[in-house]
Specification:
The complex is a heterodimer of chains A (220) and B (238).
Chain A (H helix, E strand, L loop, with lengths): L3 E3 L4 E4 L4 E2 L3 E4 L2 E4 L3 E6 L2 E6 L11 E10 L2 E5 L6 E4 L21 E10 L2 E5 L6 E2 L4 E4 L5 H5 L4 H10 L2 E4 L4 E5 L3 H16 L6 H12 L2
Parallel strand pairs in A: 3-7, 10-12
Antiparallel strand pairs in A: 1-6, 2-5, 4-5, 6-7, 8-9, 8-11, 9-10, 11-12, 11-13, 14-16, 15-16
Helix pairs in contact in A: 2-3, 2-4
Chain B lengths: L18 E5 L7 E7 L2 E12 L12 E8 L14 H14 L11 E11 L4 H15 L8 E9 L2 E4 L3 H4 L7 E9 L4 E4 L7 H28 L9
Helix pairs in contact in B: 1-2, 2-4
Chain lengths: 220, 238
Amino acid sequence: MERKVVIPGEVIAEGEDYLPGENTEKRDGKIVSLRYGLAEEQNNLVKVIALSGVYAPRRGNIVVGKVENITQNGWIIDIGTAESAFLSINEVPRYVNKDAMEEVFDIDDMIIAKIWSIGKRGIDLSIKSRDLGRIDNGMIFKINPNTVPRVIGREGSMIKIIKDGTGCNIDVAQNGFVIIEGENVDDEVFAKKVIDKITEKPFVSGLTERVTKFLEENKK
Amino acid sequence: MSEKFKRSDGRAIDELRPVEARVGVVPNADGSAMYRSGDTIAIAAVYGPKKMHPQHQQDPSRGQLRCDYNMLSFSVSERIKPGKNRRAMEISEITKWALEPVLLLDKYPNQVIDVFIDIIQADAGTRCAGINAASLALAHAGVPMKNMVSSIAVGKLDKTLVVDLTKEEEDYEEGEGPTDIPISMTHDGKITHMQLDGKINAEQLKEAVDLAKGACEKIYEIQKKALKDAVDFGGEEK
């Protein structure tokens, strides 16, 4: 089945062969969409991929957030979701002096972390991995979280093209933050321009070719 | 029904005014839509789901919907005082009731979805235009919902039922005078909202609902097209 845009309540597939996946429901033997998005079918499992809306946190996502508050045993981090996220000191892979927690992460610091669990109590973060922790250098800006898969590309193909083309190191967090670290500010601004080009029209065909062309044309 | 009945703008009794719908008109909102029916234009913007403030209004069992209907001061021929009034508050609540049944809000405990509806130009049927725009904007914001909601005002002018009244028709004075019946329903024909201002007998009310069903079907197609056209594939998508 070809990918197509569906609206809430629209019948995507009919018949007993199909199973309802993400954002769909079975109603009288029909698979019905529950949200606006792209319908996709794989091994008879029908699902709808979101095209719009606020960021929905998921386990394992890499996110960028701002330290909102410091508590007894961790930090409250704003990652752009309705629920604030929590980073416990147990999830920081080094010694933390409880009397001087602001020395590790102070209020308003930007950190990059991984969503470790999502429960009734809220979102728990962890920085027990390589490349996670406080962001000290580079440029940071926000894009629409729904365009993140487009910026990264299939198995990171798109982001690799941009990294190679601009000479910058780029990190894209699932909640829509982009961190660009380059040799100089001009390179960083150029990389931002390329990413803005993608997020402007994220669903056009031949996006890779367009980006490659844009990189070649605008390179100094 | 009398076949002789002539509407001032020459429309058939079940004919809508020229309708236009578009989504994504407010870039800063999480979802937005414009809905125009003749000279009535409504803009809806959706923000959220986000944390409910004030905190004492939070509901830990499910999310909430908050609607705000507002007519801009220049939307009518005589300037209206901007801000909340009795009528705007009633319509805000009505809009909420019309949309809440289709939304799946149990996934968003302690959260709220804000819908702001602004009428930038009014020529009767503003609550219906507002509901249509809000339904589009909610879908555009990616809020999970069972179905779309379409809304239309059916009117009774003297003894004739007509669809989608204009202000001129709403002020019809002859015979039994005007009766205004705004109806909102889902695509599968379930009514989520119905109001009645005037007099009508049970027989004719059933007819009015049938007329609304036909009109809502047309509006649904327009809403569907607006949402589908909003994704720019620029040819074939890969």
